[in-house]
Amino acid sequence: MTANAIQKTNPDMKDAILQVDHLSMKFGGLIAIGDLSFQAKRGEITALIGPNGAGKTTVFNCITGFYKPSEGMITLNRADGSSYLLERLPNHEIPARAKVARTFQNIRLFSGMTVLENLLVAQHNKLMKASGYTILGLFGFSGYRKASAESVELAKYWLEKADLVDRADDPAGDLPYGAQRRLEIARAMCTGPELLCLDEPAAGLNPKESLALNSLLMDIKKTSGTSILLIEHDMSVVMQISDHVVVLEYGRKISDGSPQSVRTDPRVIAAYLGVDDEEVEAVLTEVGDEDVIEQLDTGPDSAHGPGTSSSYLAGPVSDTIGHSQGERVTVSKGASKAAQYDTRANSAPRKPSERLTAKPAGKSPKPAAAKSPTGKPRGGRK
pTM, whole model, 2 decimals? Predict the structure, then answer.
């Protein structure tokens, strides 16, 4: 057991394949990720969502070794009982030893190779080991022939799963866009990962292609035992297949829970709509969800909110913030819409006559002129 591999000792991590603790990533004076903590459970699909620029891909890059985080720990717990601190592993050992695979926002196939060859390339390490890292494979030694046959069978298996058997001998670049997405996922699965990280797999897909993608991901979850961590903007994909959702805004976790709880979290609604602080209540009222309105009246749900953070994102945002290394960062006031909601929800309690009384949409006619929470006529959204 090396320094990079540790034994499981924390009972809270028993069912977590991935444990992210107090992760921070700084680029000079910019804090892209601030004190982020979450878990991805084994055998589940965990979605990491948030507005553009929330830091989702930066989190993926830290998990998969493209970036080394400024602070925090990323623990991968394998099924055999061993655990690895990913921030300490060399980049190439994260897929080889920790069994983490990923795809990217932009498709990265070998377009000139056939579909089958793309899946065989993913098994290069296994074939090289069978050849003794020499030219013995050229002479057809029995060990290499066996490994080669197993690689072809595994490739055929994932071609069937991805519904690409009929295109096995076609160049990968000739496939439709949705089929290329499925091929990329099939190629990642040929490496035998325990954690599959997908960066916006449904980007650019039409509804039919999104349905095929959902079917493939659900099949991977049910039949392979591989856990999935995905970044996605297509909420129809997220809400249909995810077991657990983590929401980021400006590098800070603002919600963490089931798809249903996240969908009705006022902080998430405010972050996605991007409204001005004086319009937060009015927009939530227009949503017409009684549960959301009740949360607005009674304050935020502490179970889903972020904990104490060392990042400037967790506290009031001022013009300039000093850091321990002497860095100073200029930040726009009121940048976080979720923080604006928290501030308003934690303000002085309203009188009974001032509480929101809006009913769900469709149950009452819409008033001729909507008013802001201040009582003044409200114009169009900013």
Answer: 0.71
